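User: Sequence in, structure out. Go.
Assistant: Echoing your sequence, followed by the C-alpha cells.
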Amino acid sequence: MGELRFRVERRDGLARLGRLRTPHGEVATPAFMPVGTMGAVKGMGQDLLLASGAQILMTNLFHLLERVGAERIVGLGGLHRFIGWDGPLAMDSGGYQVFSLAGLRRVSDGGVLFQSPHDGSRVELTPERVVEVQELMGVDLAMVLDECPPWPVEREEAAESLRRTTLWARRSLDRWGAAGGSGAAGLFGIVQGSFFEDLRLGAVAELAALPFDGYAIGGVSVGEDRELGRQAVSWVAPVLPEDRPRYLMGLGTPEDIVHAVGLGVDLFDCVLPSRNARHGTLFSSTGMVRIKNARYRDDPRPVDAACGCSLCRRHSRAFLHHLFRCGEITAKVLATEHNVRFFLHFMAGLRRAIAAGGLADFGGAGGREGTAAEAERR
C-alpha cells in the first residue's frame, strides 16, 4: 500500500537479514532505531548519530504535537527538514503515552484525550488525526494509535483494550493516504493483547488480514518480568507476515535483542542507551560499566578497548569518572555517544552473524550484568 519495500536476503533459523527501502534511504535489518523523542537523541547531534552508524531515527508524535505542533513543522518543510535528518524516520503514535501518562488521559473508542504534562493544555489523539499528522510530516514508518495496557491487568480489561486497538487500526487504514501532504511511506499495525497468548494470536490473525506495510509488537516492558516479556515475543514474532518488516517496540537490552532477532524481529527502538548513559551506566563488549563507582577513580583503561567512539579513543575510565563526579555535562555527552554507538555496532555484528549462519554462536551481548568479581576486573 505504501512506498516501503522489504526483502529478506538471508535466514539463519528464524532470524532474518533484510533490507528495508524507504523514500529517504535503505535500512539494513535487523536494525536499532535511536530514540529522538523531540527530534534529537539527548546529548547527540545528527552528524554524530550518522558517524556512529545510525540508519533510521525514531521520533514521537505526542511530544512533537504538544511542544511544536504539526502545522508549524509542516510549514517549516516537514519533519526531516525541521530536525535536520535526511535519512529514514519512524514515529511512535503516542500509544505509549496512553500507558505512561495514565493519570493524565481519558480513553474512549473515539480516541484519547490528554492533559498536557507540559502546560496542562488539552491534547486529543484520534486514529484519523494520528495518521494524518504522520503523513503531513512525511515520516517513513508511521504507527497506528494503540492502547498499551500495564501489567498486571485482568484478562477482561486486556481484551477490551485489544478490541479498541483493533478498531483504531481499521479506522487508521481507512484514513491512510487521504491527508494530501508529503506522504508517509508505510503504516504499521500494532499487536497488543498483554500477556495472554490467545489474545495475542487473535490480534495477529486480525491485523495480518489487513493491508499494513509492517507489523509492530507493542505492550512489552510495561511492568512484567523479563521472561514473560520474552514469552509474548515468542508467541507473536514467528507468526507475523513473512514479507513485511517486524518491529519490537521499546524493548532493548542486548540480550533481549538477540532473543528477538532469533525469533525473526527486524526493527528495535529503546531509550536505554541514552538514558543509562546519562546515569553513568555504560555498555561494553565485556559487560556493564557503572562509571561512578569508586573503583574507576584511578583506572587508566578505556571504557571498552574494542570501541572506536571518541570517549574510548581519547579518554580513560578515570577521566569519565571524574567528569561524572563533578557534574560536568560533557560526561553525559561522551557516555551517550559511547552507548548509542555500542548498540549500533552490536546490531551490525548481529547482521554479520546471520549472514554467516552463525547467530547461535554470536557472543556480542555486552549488556550482561555479571558478578561483582567480574565487574571489579573490568
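User: And one key feature?
Assistant: Confidence is low (pLDDT under 50) at residues 367-378.
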